[in-house]
Amino acid sequence: MSNLSGKVALVTGGSRGIGQGIALELAKSGASLAISYVAHQDQAEETINRIKEYKVDAIAIKADSSEVSQVEYLVNQVVQHYGGLDILVSNAGIEHFSSLDETRQQDFDRVFAVNTRGQFFVVQQAVKHMKRGGRIVCSSSMSASTPFARHAVYAASKAAVEVLVKNLAIELGPRGITINAIAPGGVGTDMAMENTREYLSSYPGMALEDIINLMIPAGRLGTPQDIAQFVAFLVSDEAEWITGQTMHIDGGVH
Ligand SMILES: NC(=O)c1ccc[n+]([C@@H]2O[C@H](COP(=O)([O-])OP(=O)(O)OC[C@H]3O[C@@H](n4cnc5c(N)ncnc54)[C@H](OP(=O)(O)O)[C@@H]3O)[C@@H](O)[C@H]2O)c1
User: Fold this and answer.
1) Distance between CA atoms of 232 and 16, rounded to whole angstroms?
2) 140 included as an active-site residue
């Protein structure tokens, strides 16, 4: 377990799912936490209570990642509360399925506004306050490299993030800040459960268990903790020489 005592971490979309798992894991390692959410305040408050069980400070801030002004507000609130920021986990994201014919401009723009633009600008705001040793982890997906029916827009919004981290690592390296992306496979969160039928449609006639056995050598879906434990390493001092990479945490999906 990494030692993050004395560090301040912001996890966007930290109220539920993978983000919640990451926030809890970083708290377990001793970091003070800020989480953001956009709609479900009750869920955010419940997560704050769970984080505080690790005897660290925790705040929740409502901020829509798709609005650059709200992203700026979010980071400023964190810095005002804690006096600095050491770790950013840019996790907030939305899923989207639609065919080429069905996709409207507003669908495309909404997905990219949250999943791509929101991640770029939260990085821009966060690094203003980071010292040497700063750590950034962004959210891609196995979908950036594994195609599914009706998934082009979401997949492209995540693939762009992998290119962003590769390029931004060049700017941030001299400042002693690392930036990486994680590309999770299927993790049993609200997002994944709400879209199971869409994923299944790429494999007509097959049951979920058979698809898991076919695609995932590890033989099961992931849990938020599977992702969180790896992120806790990526944001630790020990991961100083890892930057510009996308890490596939997916049970070996092929
Ligand atoms: N689950 C998977 O299988 C999987 C696989 C690969 C990648 N991912 C990626 O991992 C990340 C987390 O996914 P998840 O499955 O944990 O999702 P989730 O269960 O749907 O949780 C999404 C989280 O993001 C927040 N959020 C959504 N839109 C937001 C916005 N516009 N501004 C700020 N916060 C926003 C939600 O806040 P509210 O509670 O307020 O709505 C919630 O905290 C996403 O980027 C997703 O694309 C997931």
Assistant:
1) 17
2) yes
The edge-to-edge listing of strands for the beta sheet with 87-90 is 58-62, 32-37, 8-11, 87-90, 135-139, 178-184, 246-249
Distance, in Å, from the CA atom of 9 to the CA atom of 135, rounded to the nearest integer, reads: 9
**Contact at 8 Å (CB) between 165 and 244?**
yes
249-to-126, 142, 190, 239 alpha-carbon distances in Å: 25, 8, 18, 16
Q: Which residue has the tokens 């798709």?
A: 66
Query: 223 with 21: CB under 8 angstroms?
Result: yes
Domains identified in the chain and CATH numbers: 8-189+223-246 (3.40.50.720)
Q: How far is CA 214 from the centre of its chain?
A: 26
Q: Of all atoms in ligand 1, which is nearest to the CA of residue 222?
A: 3
From the CA of 70, give the closest atom in ligand 1: 32
Please report the pLDDT score of residue 254 as a whole number.
83
91 is written with which tokens? Answer: 């996790």
The rounded Å distance from CA 2 to ligand 1 centre is 25
Instruction: Reply yes or no on whether 154 is catalytic.
Output: yes
Q: What is the pLDDT of residues 159-201, one digit of tens each?
A: 999 999 999 999 999 999 999 999 999 999 999 999 999 999 9
